[in-house]
Amino acid sequence: MRLRINYQDYPYPTPTKQAKHRYRTYPLMCAFTVLLSTMNPIEKFEEWYQAELEVSSVRIPSACCLSSIGQDGYPNARFVSLKEVVDGEFVITGPLNSRKGVELLANPKASLVFWWPETGRQIRIQGTALPLDTKRADQYFKGRNRDSQIVSLISQQGHEISDPAVLTEELQKRKSEEQSTPVRRPTEWSGFSIKPLRIEFMEFNENRLHGRELFSREGDHWNRVFLQP
Ligand SMILES: Cc1cc2nc3c(=O)[nH]c(=O)nc-3n(C[C@H](O)[C@H](O)[C@H](O)COP(=O)(O)O)c2cc1C
Q1: Is the CB of 159 under 6 A from ligand 1?
Q2: Which of 27, 129, 137, 183 could form a disulfide with 104 if both were Cys (CB 3.0 to 4.6 A apart)?
Q3: Structural domains of the chain sorted by starting position, each given as residue range(s) with its CATH number in brackets
């Protein structure tokens, strides 16, 4: 059996209106990128996110791939949804006793990768993940919808279960029981704030000379270099 992927013919970069405009203005942009583009990668992240949001129809545009380092040394990647960028740090949430939680508590080196197809852009972040304090965990938990809160309460994310139907029944039971009282945050449900060390921006260009810009933190200052595609 073989799954053939027609990788030669991918219609990339994605020909959205916005991207097309970028390709037409590419030579001009190259000349001005060095001079005019922001030296603040957090601002640039926000600009790119907004640009994608304006044209994107995906259900979770904040989805990103979070990698942690497994206790066996293998990298371990999964999608999460970015909750916020606060004071230049990237916030994700989930239980601390899940695999990602245990791995990040043991080794806080983390990476996040975003791929935004409409604007043809990728952002890679490497940084240090520190757990949220109780107050912030409470705030993010309150912001979740009730079903998600109940699932967080009854499910031990990533732990084995002999019969998944047990959880479906439990969910139904809790939903009918707890309609007026707020769902309490399980103590292990929290999240991490990732302080970036490096942020790399890549955008597709029609001539395949994709633009790459790497920011590296040095204390409170960001250094920037351009990378070959
Ligand atoms: C688009 C998308 C967004 C997700 N967002 C989250 C999230 O914000 N938090 C979370 O714990 N899991 C989220 N998940 C589920 C995770 O991918 C993963 O299954 C879960 O966190 C368990 O991972 P772990 O066993 O490595 O801890 C998301 C999955 C997808 C596909």
Answers
A1: no
A2: 129
A3: 11-157+164-227 (2.30.110.10)
Nearest protein Cα to ligand 1, atom 18: 78
| Residue of 149, 156, 142 whose CA lies nearest to 97 | 156
Continuous segment of H or E residues that includes residue 134? helix 134-142
Q: Looking at the whole model, is its pTM more than 0.85? A: yes
pLDDT tens digits, residue range 13-59?
A: 554 655 555 555 555 555 555 566 778 999 999 999 999 999 988 88
Q: Could you give the CA distance from residue 195 to residue 187 in angstroms, rounded to a whole number?
A: 23
Contact indicator for 136, 166 with CB cutoff of 8 Å: no
> What residue owns the CA closest to ligand 1's atom 11?
94
Measured between its terminal Cα atoms, the distance across the chain in Å is 34
Choose one of 66, 71, 79, 148 to mutate for the ligand 1 pocket test, by most ligand atoms within 8 angstroms of C-beta: 79
